[in-house]
Amino acid sequence: MGKSIREHGTQQAARGIIRLLPKISDDNLIRLTYLAEWLSNDPEVLNGIRKVRTLLQTPGHPAKDLFHRVLEYLPNERRVRLFETLFNGAWFEGGKLRDKWEKEQGFRPPFIMILSPTLHCNLRCKGCYTLGYGMRPQLSLEVADRLLDECDELGIHFVTILGGEPLVYPHLFTLLERHPNIFFQVYTNGTLMTREKAQRFADVGNTAVVISIEGGEKETDAWRGKGVYKRIMKAFEYLNDARVIIGTSATVTRQNVYTVSSLKFIDEMISLGSFAQMYFLYIPVNGKADFSLMVTPKQRDHLRRQVNFIRNHRPMFVLDFWNDGPYVEGCIAGGRRYFHVNAKGDVEPCVYTHIAVDNIHQKSLKEALNSHLFRHIRSRQPHNPNHLRPCMIIDNPHVMREVIQVCNARFTHPGAEEIYTVKKDQMDAYAARWGRLADKIWKEEYLTEPEHEKVPSPTLAEARESAPAV
Prior knowledge:
Layout: H1 2-20, H2 26-36, H3 43-57, H4 63-73, H5 76-105, E1 112-115, H6 141-154, E2 158-161, H7 172-178, E3 183-188, H8 195-204, E4 207-212, H9 217-224, H10 228-242, E5 245-252, H11 257-260, H12 263-271, E6 274-281, H13 297-313, E7 317-320, H14 325-328, E8 338-341, E9 347-348, E10 355-356, H15 365-369, H16 372-380, H17 397-407, E11 410-411, H18 424-446, H19 460-464
Parallel strand pairs: 1-2, 1-8, 2-3, 3-4, 4-5, 5-6, 6-7
Antiparallel strand pairs: 8-9, 10-11
Helix pairs in contact: 1-2, 2-3, 8-10, 13-18
């Protein structure tokens, strides 16, 4: 009886949310959060909903403006699709399926799968983490479709599509259309976007498009090629006109870190229609490691502080893949929260950990997620008690070497072994330099506060100033 009452309440809450979506107001945003609590029993999800409500109720916090931006941008039918796929599908209904698998199989499927269905690409960006794979591998429609069917069964209803360049993949829209219950993020260099493709993304309604951009025209063209920036601007135009959810992503290097973390850059991205900014540090994993591109410890901390400031002062969702370790208690790879399937079918612990023991052509996704490699990685997490040092590649490289040896993992492309063999001393030295600063920050700013949201951020004047010399 209790279960049926709960299920009835869940159904009523979902209907209530859909009824409120056309009626956007500050009060209704708060009502949406109370209704959303009926959709999940997961303490982590419920805590997240309550934190969002607190932000919405905090005078001057930009969360309210962000929600208004998204909902006022989307036609109502796409607001409903966003709720059905991203929120109800990926978070709530997907969570129930993941609960079920955890009880029955002894391991919990992750929230996200990263899928690179093709390595074909029209660009050859400097420092791209995929350079070592080559540009030929590509998954067939049959294999990619089956993989997404398995995700659906496991409750993995959030899938990020990488490449290569996804818009080169001939089956992209077929996959999006065949899997309407999955929410997709498609990362693109933007140069192949057309009005017709933008409208197709809008029509499927279950996809956000993330455009890669490394700063202004100078920085972007230096990384991606001459003329790319101007072509990206057309992509923004087409996606805005079609009312597609847009995000932006930057590869952060020693050369562009101050540009992409500046308020000027964020304000420009907002003006171009981006609702989310993702930051990914350059990681030397492509077999051609260039340590001069890696951010310095001071730069990495500068990015951390800027991200915290942006979150509190701009209507933009921001993700900083490395510095956000404290929010997720360290590393999320190995299927703890996410994993990667590359265009050859290798099931890798992370987009940047180019090792595997299983391939999706020979194993089911369920088997691969419960492999000895993934189990061993999960058993070691977190790799460091300081969650500002979460990564087993650049922060704790000794862990990655131990994982490779113990699990007899193979490298998934020529040169992937470089930073674990001939350049391991450079990786250890890099990790040690960041470790000294990160441990000081962790002790002074995190261990003294029960909530990492209280980490000091720069003042408005400081955020606007040019970065100090490194």
